[in-house]
Amino acid sequence: MKQISLLITLLFLSQMALAQQEEEKELIMDFEKYNPPSTLVVPEHPTTRAKFPFIDVHSHHFRMATQDLDKLVKEMDELNMGIIVNLSGRNSKALKDMTDHVKEEGYENRIVVFSNINLQSIDEPDWAEETCKQLEYDFQNGSRGLKIYKSQGMTNNDKDGNRIKINDPRIAPVWEKCGELGMPVLIHSADPKSFWEPHDENNERWLELKLRPRRKRGPEDPAPWETIIAEQHDLFKNHPNTTFIAAHFGWFPNDLAKLSTLLDDMPNMYVECGAIIAELGRQPRNAKKFLTKYQDRILFGKDAYNPEEYHTYFRVLETDDEYFPYYKKYHAYWKMYGLDLDDEVLKKMYYKNALKIIPGLDASLFPE
């Protein structure tokens, strides 16, 4: 009888232990899945249409030569986007095919294309001369600027296997030609500094690097972050007659004091806000002071074209909302706050500064 009682007790304890284990399993959750909606009750002003018409200086449409432009322009109208700049214009015939398609569809005042250059043949003795001729051809066929991808300074190598630095002297004639033609250069150099730092509990981009491991870099891969960024700044200083737009706030959106010193030091440097709006949204007072002080040097950019994501940009820049999320947790796990920018600052960021530095834009699409 005692043995039966002991067995029953052991069975009961075993079942209790199993039940506790199941309960503990339910409580275990991967960090990347933890994303509860806030219970905070505050005024909300979701903003699906910009207060003023705007120019997006940073977009990518690789198949624009055959793209349904009616659909694109309809989406632009819904957002109150006056002009979109396609930075993926390629060059030569490919670029002309795009600009011809835009003209045929009757949207040459709404859609602008930037050129790209080919660094793979940089070792050829006539590379600079031919590239400058290409830029002239592209300009005559509707190109209004030059886009430099992050591959320059990161993955492009010459025939000897050496990294092609951003300030490589072989490219100097190209920057000078852009200045001569009045074509601004929108340049993406490096990536966020956290990508070069140890992937541990102290890395603010830990989740992004876990979910996108190919973005992680070693301290010398392919060079220190500081080295690549310094090459960009050296380029700006060496070509003062050329206008440069540093993509993504030059990767200093989290250090606006440093960015201030750069803008003060290099009057030909502008910045655009593509993919860094979450950085501005988490420091609303500091960011508003910065954008107000440098209102003549900031442009609106978005990067990847997803119409619904513009809504977050409008909300950050235009409203005084509190504690709302970014649309990609792995980019920004923190909450954001609206900057409530003054109308004149918004107008300059949305369209006035772009009209000033990008040639051939239709100013009639925008208020005085």
Q: Which sheet architecture does the biggest sheet show?
A: 8 strands, parallel
Oligomer: single chain
Order of secondary-structure elements? HEHEHEHEHEHHEHEHHEHEEH
> What separation lies between the terminal Cα atoms?
97 Å
Average predicted local confidence, pLDDT: 94
Low-pLDDT regions: none
Proportion of beta-strand residues: 5-15%
Identify the CATH class.
Answer: Alpha Beta
The coarse silhouette is globular
- Note the total helix count: 12
CATH architect. name: Alpha-Beta Barrel
Describe the overall structure.
- The protein is of the alpha/beta class.
- The protein has one domain (45-365): Alpha-Beta Barrel (TIM Barrel).
- Helices cover 39% and strands 11% of the residues.
- The chain contains twelve helices and ten strands.
- The chain has helices at 2-27, 69-79, 92-104, 127-140, 172-181, 206-211, 225-238, 256-265, 277-281, 284-293, 310-318, 343-357; strands spanning 54-59, 81-86, 111-115, 143-148, 185-187, 244-246, 269-272, 298-299, 324-325, 335-336.
- The strands form two sheets. The chain has an eight-stranded parallel beta sheet with strand order 1-2-3-4-5-6-7-8. A two-stranded antiparallel ribbon has the order 9-10.
- Helix 4 links the parallel strand 3 and strand 4 (143-148).
- The chain is globular, with a radius of gyration of 25 Å.
- The protein starts with a helix and ends in an 11-residue tail after the last helix.
